[in-house]
Specification:
The complex is a heterotetramer of chains A (157), B (193), C (323) and D (386). Chain A is of the alpha+beta class and 157 residues long. Chain A has helices at residues 3-23, 65-69, 106-110, 136-145; strands at 46-49, 75-81, 87-97, 116-119, 133-134, 148-149. The chains are: A alpha+beta (157), B alpha/beta (193), C mainly alpha (323), D alpha+beta (386).
Chain lengths: 157, 193, 323, 386
């Protein structure tokens, strides 16, 4: 028998051994909607607004550092203007456009007031792109429902 | 799309920490091998000069008409033997376009040389420089890209068409600083509601 | 009492319906099985959500989906050729069952030249491939059709020669007879070379990996049925799986002793053997990469054909010596 | 003229096709096609099954990265650079960080350097696994693809645990890493490497690369000689498959590559098989490098060095930085006028350069081998079109 036939037969048989072996194992599929996929702590999905746990007030002071650090410039933040015409350290608006968000964590790192976190809730898809705007209340509500982890630069985890 | 006129924003005001890294200024000192190479080049081509703006390797500035000569020498000379054209790119400086070639000797010593050419604008015509596709066939797409995005005409290129932008793109060359994006601006989705 | 001719006609219609039912049910099972086997080979589960835990009704869901799809006709295609091709693909696959016994006496027409009839009828499938490729007016389809055509022609020959050796050994073309001659020993043992050639040829004829050049999805998108969708595409699939069933039953009848086996009724044994062969074909499909067209031709003409001729010679010498 | 330095033009590079035998047909492979790895269009001229010419038409994914980042600050460029070569994003981040760090002379702590190297090699491993799967698909085997994705999943999980994202990590920062790895991560990494080496890799070999059909399909097909590869500026496994042992990790060591021992696998003939085998061996080399890096990893150390200035301004001038991505030498040319962001950035994408070789590889081969040759170049369209 020519050597190449033997070689071919052996190599093909080896391949079949692998597939048969794998066939008899348990499948690795996880049934996604029924079994939610676990996310590891620190998974980033969308920046959300953190509130003080005791007072329930947002930590945000509307300083705008996050908006400046944002590469695609999707954060709009404006502070409350008081009756005396001076800006208060309290956001009037905090809008975020998830449709262009790069999920880069730069806004969280820029925030000096511990006001932003990356939420792990990744099931935010929508049929209309306009449903991907989030305003202040929605972002604050998202923080309450989904687990979020704040990772600053150089932090030990 | 970022507006090209826009300057980088001022950095956020934070408590100023004294930077511990001193950014080097002035020309980068040369290694002995770079000195030798520069001497060797200057002997052969008296018109070459060191381009001190190239800070990552030795930059050699060449007049546009001698580019091919010098690059061919760099490729074939036993001292340089730069068989690898790593990168070919161009930058618009407002009054001139600079084309930069990055060459590496990849077979023996891994040293690198950069050749830069300044092409002054001549009216509305695209600045011209000799194509090096017959030295490195691989320069083909690099040159097409430079033509497409920066607007440099490479004389003698076999097939100088747009490569990344569509064939009939009428808006000019986007990496020029004078480029104006005429597309309707995309609606900003972040708004007050 | 009905007139005799009407009885014949009704009896024929009944048989045809039964055959059609058998074929369709098996094809649906095969499509489901292929998905399950490929799924498990690939550490996946396969169909799951339609019809119970194993997704047994997935194929029915697919058929409903395919029926509901738009009937698309390529612009500037050849309409008649294009419309006929799926039927031409399915019809020969069905016709083979008129002579193929599923069990002892479980056959529509126990023809004396059954094997010859099968060989003749299956050659038709090349016609449908060409019609589909030509009628689509698509370059992918055309290349796919040319490949599949060349492949079907060049593997037909070794297969027929392998069957010649079988006929030589058994002395008959009647399939029931061939099965009856295997009571002592299955033909796979004396005729192993013929079995090998026939099985490789059958896989190639079926356009299955590693010989699925006619529909090589990595270069030709879907080969000759690129332009087909909906129920016409389903006809091609149905034809393909029916052919898989046919050839597996034929191999089990000719080489694996047909319905000979203990305890269970004959037709069950035939189906068990056929499904075993089908599983092997699926196993091969989900393991091996695809060969190239020149390698395919080389294998057909330079390896299988000489092998089958050698087998005929060996059989002939053996028969002469034994006689 | 000495051997190997002859001039090689684009026409001469592929004068292999037969012409005038039958009527050639022109086929548009792509932009929508099962195996063009994205939105690549190949204008292919065929003589029957034989390829006469294969002309890539690119730009369907073009977004002008270089224009967009003009006027951005250097740290902001990092997450957007990820999108270039999205299969191996770590290398893009590292390149941006490295060019700024090299220009400013920022020295990283040892721990950060070692971790960077670990992440890069893990990403290379994952990227090569994906290549293995897609190449198997290109030559018609589907199951290896699923196995490769199965094994890649664990690697992705590891990266997710450390970086918080699966594909576009935005993890490197100028001066180090965003955060340290979680507890127990290194141990799990070692388990993954053991799994890969002992279970997954032998499967790959048995199932595909040792298979006779695979070898027959790849051997002697799509040959790129040493000179052609050099002339076309090819890098990475394409160049190494042709027998040139050029690897930026060896030639210009960065990270801790200078301290670890590894080999640069080199092919012999420059055919599809050699390129494939170079990648297969590189997977094992990556495992070897990660193992050594784990040994080297110091227990303590800042992952984000505090020596980074708050205001990052590059001195006026231009800088060319390169490193070795799974696809070859990826380079970044930064032109700075002393501002907070670059005046111009040019991304030297290895896939972009290597893709030019496709025409040369495919001429005179069969259509199926055109696809296989495309598979061995391992292009990422995000990087080709930028």
């Amino acid at each position: 028998m020519p050597a190449w036939i033997r070689r071919a037969a052996v190599s093909i048989a080896k391949g079949h051994r692998v597939t048969l072996d794998q066939m008899l194992r348990r499948p690795i599929t996880s049934l996604y909607p029924e079994e939610p996929v676990p996310h590891f702590p620190g998974f980033r999905s969308i920046p959300v607004l953190k509130a003080n746990e005791e007072t329930g007030k947002l930590n945000c002071t509307a300083c705008g550092l996050c908006a400046r650090s944002c590469p695609p410039q999707i954060i709009f933040v404006e502070s409350v203007v008081g009756d005396d015409g001076r800006r208060k350290q309290w956001p009037a608006f905090f809008n975020l456009d998830l449709s262009r968000c790069m999920v880069c964590n730069l806004c969280v790192e820029a925030c000096p007031f511990d006001a932003l976190e990356m939420s792990a809730d990744n099931e935010l898809s929508a049929y209309d792109v306009r449903d991907l705007f989030f305003n202040m209340e929605e972002l604050a509500a998202l923080w309450k429902t989904a687990p979020a982890v704040r990772i600053a630069g150089g932090q030990k985890r | 799309m970022v507006d090209e006129e826009k300057q980088p924003k001022t950095p956020p005001k934070k408590p100023v920490v004294k930077p511990k890294v001193e950014a080097a200024s002035g020309p980068v000192p040369l290694t002995p091998r770079q000195e030798e190479g520069l001497q060797r080049l200057k002997e052969k081509f008296p018109f070459v000069e060191r381009d001190e703006k190239v800070r990552s390797s030795l930059g050699i500035q060449v007049p546009p008409e001698h580019v091919k000569e010098v690059l061919g020498f760099l490729r074939d000379d036993p001292f340089f033997r730069c068989r690898h054209l790593s990168c070919l790119s161009a930058v618009d400086w407002g009054e001139a376009i600079e084309v930069a070639y990055h060459l590496v000797n990849i077979e023996e010593k891994a040293d690198e040389w950069a050749v830069t050419v300044k092409l002054p604008y001549q009216g509305d015509e695209l600045p011209e420089v000799d194509s090096i596709t017959d030295l490195w066939p691989g320069a083909d797409w690099h040159e097409r890209e430079a033509y497409d995005l920066v607007g440099v005409r490479f004389k003698g290129h076999p097939d100088l068409r747009r490569i990344l932008l569509p064939e009939g793109f009428a808006g000019g060359h986007p990496l020029r600083k004078s480029f104006v994006d005429r597309r309707p601006p995309r609606q900003r989705l972040v708004r007050i509601r | 009492m009905l007139p005799l001719w009407l009885q014949w006609v009704l009896w024929g219609i009944l048989k045809a319906v039964l055959v059609l039912l058998f074929v369709t049910v098996n094809a649906i099972i095969l499509i489901w099985l292929e998905r399950k086997v490929s799924g498990h080979i690939q550490n996946r589960i396969g169909p799951l959500r339609v019809g119970g835990p194993a997704g047994v009704l997935q194929s029915f869901a697919d058929i409903i989906k395919l029926l509901a799809k738009e009937d698309f006709f390529p612009k500037r295609g050849d309409p008649w050729v294009w419309w006929l091709a799926p039927s031409v693909a399915f019809a020969p696959a069905l016709m083979v069952f008129f002579v193929l016994p599923i069990g002892p006496h479980l056959v529509v027409q126990d023809m004396n030249v059954g094997l010859l009839f099968i060989v003749a009828i299956t050659s038709f499938s090349v016609l449908s491939v060409f019609m589909a490729g030509w009628g689509s007016n698509d370059k992918y389809s055309l290349i796919g059709a040319m490949r599949a055509g060349a492949q079907l022609f060049s593997y037909e020959l070794p297969m027929v020669l392998a069957l010649v050796a079988v006929t030589l050994a058994t002395g008959t073309l009647n399939i029931s007879e061939i099965v009856a001659r295997q009571q002592g020993m299955w033909l796979i043992f004396p005729q192993f070379l013929a079995f090998l050639v026939f099985y490789i040829g059958a896989i190639a004829e079926l356009n299955r990996t590693p010989f699925d050049l006619g529909e090589a999805e990595s270069e030709l998108v879907a080969g000759y049925h690129t332009e087909y969708s909906g129920i016409r595409w389903a006809m091609f699939m149905l034809g393909e799986y029916t052919n898989l069933l046919t050839s597996s039953i034929l191999v089990s009848l000719v080489f694996l002793g047909g319905w000979s086996g203990p305890l269970l009724p004959g037709w069950v044994w035939v189906l068990i053997k056929a499904y075993l062969l089908i599983f092997v074909a699926m196993w091969i499909r989900w393991t091996l990469p695809r060969v190239r067209i020149d390698q395919l031709m080389d294998l057909g003409w330079k390896f299988l054909l000489p092998l089958s001729l050698l087998n005929i010679a060996l059989t002939g010498v053996y028969m002469a010596v034994m006689a | 003229m000495e051997k190997g330095s002859e001039v090689y033009t684009a026409e001469e590079a592929g004068r292999l096709g037969r012409e005038g035998i039958t009527e050639p047909i022109v086929i548009n492979l792509g932009p929508q096609h099962p195996s063009t790895h994205g939105v690549l269009r190949l204008i292919t001229t065929l003589d029957g099954e034989t390829v006469l010419k294969a002309q890539p038409d690119i730009g369907y994914l073009h977004r002008n990265w270089e224009k967009i980042v003009e006027g951005w600050q250097y740290p902001q460029i990092i997450p957007f650079a990820d999108r270039n070569d999205y299969i191996s994003a770590i290398f893009n981040e590292w390149l941006v960080c490295k060019s700024v760090e090299d220009a400013l002379g920022i020295e990283l702590d040892k721990r950060a350097e070692v971790l960077r190297t670990i992440f890069a090699e893990l990403n290379r491993l994952i990227s090569h696994q994906l290549w293995f799967g897609t190449y198997a698909m290109d030559i018609g085997a589907f199951t290896p693809f699923v196995y490769a994705l199965r094994d890649r999943e664990w690697g992705y999980a590891l990266l997710e645990k450390a970086t918080g994202a699966r594909q576009l990590y935005a993890f490197f920062r100028i001066g180090g890493l965003r955060n340290d790895v979680p507890d127990g991560w290194i141990e799990e990494l070692s388990q993954y490497l053991d799994y890969f080496e002992k279970e997954a890799y032998p499967q790959y070999v048995d199932l595909l690369t040792g298979n006779e059909i695979f070898i027959q399909r790849s051997e002697g097909v799509g040959v790129v000689s040493r000179d052609v590869a050099l002339a076309f500026g090819a890098t990475g496994p394409v160049l190494r498959g042709s027998g040139v042992p050029y690897d930026v990790r060896k030639a210009h060591p960065y990270g801790v590559y200078g301290e670890v021992e590894f080999e640069v696998p080199v092919g012999e003939h420059g055919d599809n098989l050699d390129r494939a085998m170079v990648r297969m061996k590189e997977m094992l080399e990556s495992v070897k490098i990660i193992r050594q890096c784990v040994e080297l990893l110091p227990e303590e150390g800042e992952v984000l060095t505090s020596r980074v200035p708050r205001v990052l301004k590059l001195p006026e001038g231009n800088y060319y930085t390169r490193l070795e991505s799974p696809r070859g030498e990826v380079g970044l040319w930064v032109v700075s006028t002393g501002g907070l962001g670059p005046y111009r950035m040019k991304w030297r994408a290895p896939s972009f350069v290597n893709l030019q070789l496709l025409d040369h590889m495919a001429r005179g081969e069969k259509v199926a081998d055109l696809i296989a040759a495309l598979g061995t170049i391992d292009i990422i369209l995000g990087e080709v079109d930028r």
